[in-house]
């Protein structure tokens, strides 16, 4: 046991050390992210001092861009399962090592999710009420208590799987299947649950008819399985271009097939939702009218949603054509998918649910500058975490950081390129 603890501490220290080693591009990237993180932290400090009045939120629109980002990132985290399923169920060898990159992305996304929830709280010091076994969660009646459980559970699952596999690779030992395979299959079900529970947070609010539809859950999953793999495709190409890690085009095209099918389903479900809202023509369609066409002279979200629809349709067409097998067009489709779904699931879902208010008032919401800085800071922190995860994992997967070369100096061995 003492030997195991010693070896594991050495493993962690070597991983931590290599995270600070790279060429000028690495330092420039990490420096830029750190500056943005500090700007976001300063903006959040102002919010703590003055309260949520520093944001664009109000009594009428009490959820804004913080919860919009949270909703989107839960989907990104859940999408890691789209790499796990081909590897562990269908035996896809091209994605075998790459699945770790997807799970590390899930870890970074969940960290950002928790950060966005924290900054959205007016009294973050009361967050302990949501901690299982310590606070009063009103479990199982409260969907928020379910969300706390599934998000933190999914984070622990991915940390265990990635940490164990990387440590075994570092030790040059074959992983013990019973110690991680059951958790892999549990993570598959858990990934679906985290986004389904997030959808139920909206669906369960009966006083908000815009969200009160059973199709929200499937829409969340379809959009997640589009945007998540799209982000992974971009990330894998960056890893391939800026490191010596070999990633085959075949692996990227496998993920392309997932994005292609998921985008078609996502657009279809959006069309179903639009039909439901407008064909009946009831008073409950007021939120949808505000979103798509404006209401009583208020048009704040109209450019957002039509931009999202345009991007999604263009991405769907590109992905449906053979030209998307070329990486340049595939990248275009992925970027359009990510932006389109961020708008659709963020500003296009969260804000309209509050408009009009139960008293019929129409109040436009626009993120404040301070609110935007906080968001950018959290995104930068998430990118920083993911970059550090990759910086530690790539040399281990390549075999350049292992127990066999424990006595060698990392600064001489592990250059970024």
Task: Note down, in words, how this protein is organized.
By secondary structure, the chain is mostly helical. The chain has one domain (10-402): Formate dehydrogenase/DMSO reductase fold (Up-down Bundle). The protein contains 14 helices and no strands. Helix 3 runs antiparallel to helix 7 (177-203), helix 3 packs across helix 12 and helix 8 (216-242) packs across helix 12. It starts with a helix and ends with a helix.
Topology diagram in text:
Blueprint: H1 2-18, H2 24-50, H3 65-78, H4 81-88, H5 99-120, H6 143-171, H7 177-203, H8 216-242, H9 249-280, H10 286-292, H11 302-320, H12 327-345, H13 369-398, H14 410-413
Helix pairs in contact: 2-13, 3-5, 3-7, 3-8, 3-12, 4-7, 5-6, 5-13, 6-7, 7-8, 8-9, 8-12, 9-11, 9-12, 11-12
Which shape, going by the Cα principal axes? globular
- Determine the N-to-C terminus distance: 37 Å
Query: Which sequence of SSEs, written as H and E, runs from N to C?
Result: HHHHHHHHHHHHHH
Q: Which blocks of ≥5 consecutive residues have pLDDT under 50? A: none
How many domains?
Answer: 1
Structural class: mainly alpha
Total strand count, please? 0
Largest sheet, if any? none
Write out the CATH superfamily name: Formate dehydrogenase/DMSO reductase domain
CATH architectural name: Up-down Bundle
How confident overall, as mean pLDDT?
A: 86
The number of helical runs is: 14
CATH topology, by name, is: Formate dehydrogenase/DMSO reductase fold
- Top-tier CATH class: Mainly Alpha
Beta-strand proportion: under 5%
Q: In percent, how helical is the residue content?
A: 55-70%
Integer-rounded radius of gyration: 22 Å
């Amino acid at each position: 046991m003492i030997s195991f603890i010693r070896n594991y501490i050495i493993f962690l220290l070597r991983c931590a050390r290599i995270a600070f080693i790279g060429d000028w591009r690495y330092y420039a990237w990490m420096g830029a992210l750190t500056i943005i993180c500090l700007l976001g932290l300063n903006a959040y400090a102002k919010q703590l001092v003055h309260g949520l009045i520093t944001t664009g939120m109000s009594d009428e629109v009490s959820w804004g861009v913080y919860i919009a980002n949270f909703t989107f990132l839960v989907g990104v985290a859940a999408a890691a399962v789209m790499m796990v399923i081909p590897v562990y169920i269908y035996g896809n060898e091209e994605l075998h090592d790459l699945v770790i990159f997807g799970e590390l992305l899930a870890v970074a996304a969940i960290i950002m999710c928790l950060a966005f929830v924290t900054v959205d709280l007016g009294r973050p010091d009361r967050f302990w009420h949501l901690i299982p076994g310590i606070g009063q969660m009103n479990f199982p009646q409260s969907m928020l208590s379910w969300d706390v459980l599934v998000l933190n559970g999914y984070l622990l699952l991915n940390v265990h799987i990635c940490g164990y596999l990387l440590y075994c690779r570092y030790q040059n030992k074959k992983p013990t299947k019973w110690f991680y395979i059951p958790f892999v299959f549990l993570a598959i079900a858990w990934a679906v649950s985290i986004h389904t529970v997030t959808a139920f947070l909206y669906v369960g609010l009966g006083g908000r008819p815009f969200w009160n539809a059973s199709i929200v859950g499937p829409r969340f999953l379809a959009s997640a399985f589009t945007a998540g793999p799209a982000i992974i495709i971009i990330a894998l190409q960056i890893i391939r271009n800026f490191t010596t890690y070999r990633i085959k085009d075949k692996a990227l095209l496998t993920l392309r097939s997932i994005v292609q099918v998921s985008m078609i389903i996502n657009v279809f479900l959006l069309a179903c939702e639009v039909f439901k809202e407008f064909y009946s023509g009831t008073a409950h369609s007021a939120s949808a009218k505000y979103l798509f066409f404006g209401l009583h002279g208020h048009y704040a979200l109209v450019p957002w949603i039509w931009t999202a629809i345009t991007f999604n349709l263009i991405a769907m067409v590109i992905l449906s054509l053979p030209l998307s097998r070329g990486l340049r067009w595939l990248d275009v489709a992925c970027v359009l998918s990510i932006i389109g779904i961020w708008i659709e699931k963020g500003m296009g879902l969260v804000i309209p649910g509050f408009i009009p208010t139960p008293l019929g008032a129409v109040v436009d919401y626009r993120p404040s500058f301070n609110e935007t800085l906080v968001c950018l800071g959290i995104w930068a922190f998430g990118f920083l975490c993911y970059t550090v995860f990759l910086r530690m994992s790539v040399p281990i997967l390549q075999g350049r950081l292992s127990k066999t070369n424990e006595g060698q100096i990392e600064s001489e061995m592990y250059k970024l390129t």
